[in-house]
Amino acid sequence: MSGGVDSSVAAALLVEQGYRVTGMMLRLWSQPGLEESNRCCTPDSMAQARRVAAILGIPFFAVDVQDKFRASVVQSFIDGYAQGMTPNPCLVCNRQIRWGHMLDQALAMGADFLATGHYARVEHGEDGSSRLMRAADPGKDQSYVLSVLSQEQLRRTLLPVGHLPKSEVRQLAHKFSLPVAERADSQDLCFLAGGDYRQFLTGYAGLEGTPGKIVNRRGEVLGMHQGLRGYTIGQRKGLQIAAAEPYYVLDKDLTTNTLVIGFKHELGRTTLKASNVNWISSSLPAPNCRVQVKIRYRAELHWGILNATGDGGAVVAFDEPLRDITPGQQAVFYDGEYVLGGGIIQP
User: Fold this and answer.
1) Could you give the C-alpha distances from 277 to 177, 265, 282, 342, 343, in angstroms and in order?
2) Residues 174, 178, 183, 187: is their CA dihedral positive or negative?
3) How far is C-alpha 154 from the geometric centre of its chain's CA atoms?
4) In this structure, is the dihedral angle defined by the CA atoms of residues 3, 4, 7 and 8, taken in order, positive or negative?
5) How far apart, in whole angstroms, are the C-alpha atoms of residue 72 and residue 89?
6) Residues of the chain with pLDDT > 90: what percent?
7) What DSSP assignment string belongs to 82-120?
8) What is the pLDDT of residue 249?
9) How do residues 238-259 score in pLDDT, each as one tens digit?
10) What percent of the chain is modeled with pLDDT above 70?
11) Domain 269-345: which topology?
12) Which residues are known to be catalytic?
């Protein structure tokens, strides 16, 4: 429970369905001095979650995972940018904190399932297997960030709002008389406290940028950058180089500390390679499997041909070039409504 409408309605639905429900809230790490701005676990959010639990008549516990969160989620975020990648810390949090530490805590307390307010669906088979599916509301679908979960984790998972549109979830919150019915959704990375990630990397993590050349595809020097960590593939704003049409970031060469830029028509790749792929079914897809792929959380689905590789990775050949294939982001593979798996995009 986060004090938001989705997890609150998830708890209310389970109580209504006859489950014995216990509320748990994670106390996460925030940048020192900005703890009050951490939307997911401010004192107000904690108070709202406790209030909802009291209305539902269920026990409520706060679990302090600040040290674990800092050591795994925040450090992986810092390390990713230090390596010139653009990481998604929500993936690490779901795998290691929510469905790692919190699930272990829940099981130790005698629970059978971990339920959350994520918008996705889990299909539990009679043979004990589980399949991850996209949410019924495509605009709220969060199956992308759950693509890191294992079969054992999915078998223990309930997603009570995954079959509902957000508008109906808010209606249910009013029906259950929950005070969070109109609470706004949180969009920012929680530990950044609404700040700019570049300021966090420089001010907190001490990742001072190393200046280097900005060049075009022909190798012509167009300017200087102040550190590759401040740029991502497809970025247009912030380059500050005058031209007849806007420049975009095409590539980052870590070996030479060079930023490669070009015009819009130069963007796009037709293939990607992903590493550390988590296959939801624990088995590999058939060769030359035609799938839809998301290359970042808010991206559209794109058609391509998927093949697993012998090194635990996968390659995708897309039907058409994509502008924003970004190393460090997760590529998630879909067969219709079902998630096949996902892995980290490589340079």
Assistant:
1) 42, 31, 10, 5, 4
2) negative
3) 17
4) positive
5) 9
6) 76
7) HTT----HHHHIIIIIIIIIIHHHHHHTT-S-EE---SE
8) 94
9) 898 999 999 999 999 988 999 9
10) 96
11) Elongation Factor Tu (Ef-tu); domain 3 (2.40.30)
12) 93, 190
What pLDDT was estimated at residue 64? 93
pLDDT given at position 229: 83
Bin 257: left if φ > 0, else alpha if -120 < ψ < 50, else beta: left
CATH code matching the domain that covers 209-266, chosen among 1.20.58.100, 2.30.30.280, 3.40.190.10, 2.40.110.10: 2.30.30.280
Report whether pLDDT(346) > 70: yes
Residue 332 is given by DSSP the state E
Domain 5-192 is found in CATH 3.10.50.40: no
Closest by CA position to 174, among listed 43, 12, 58: 12
Task: Name the residue ranges covered by the structural domains of the chain.
Answer: 5-192, 209-266, 269-345
CB 190 within 8 A of CB 28: yes
The residue with tokens 């096949």 is 340
Q: Could you tell me if 45 and 39 are in contact, meaning their C-beta atoms sit under 8 angstroms apart?
A: yes
175-223 pLDDT, tens per residue?
999 999 998 887 667 777 666 788 888 878 777 788 999 999 999 999 9
CA–CA distance, 182 with 287 (Å, rounded to integer)? 47
Residue in the block written with tokens 């970004």: 326
Tell me if the pTM is above 0.85. yes
